[in-house]
Amino acid sequence: xxxxxxxxxxxxxxxxxxxxxxxxxxxxxxxxxxxxxxxxxxxxxxxxxxxxxxxxxxxxxxxxxxxxxxxxxxxxxxxxxxxxxxxxxxxxxxxxxxxxxxxxxxxxxxxxxxxxxxxxxxxxxxxxxxxxxx
Length: 134
Hints:
Elements: H1 2-7, H2 12-24, H3 30-41, H4 47-56, H5 61-69, H6 73-88, H7 96-109, H8 114-126
Helix pairs in contact: 3-5, 4-5, 6-7, 6-8, 7-8
């Protein structure tokens, strides 16, 4: 924010004043940023990927963990299931293992934990009418 305001021609005193007012009202700060970021990105990414993105944006680990604690496990599972449905598309998998290796691997790369990826893949597989193979 400071850089953008500086590039738009505001002087340092105005930037400091604006930042102080925003922080005073709770609109600016790492915790607020992290909470909004988690809420927005949790629709398409798992907590591991979100944590990595927050770290890349300079948010410390404790702040990121506090923001991720508010992530509802049920909503995380729903988001992973919607994503898995989209990733599977109209593809007909020959076995549960094939589905898990394809869709499950993509969920893992998007930061979802293994237990979530397995549960979601089992749900997608059950939707096919078949039973999962070990």
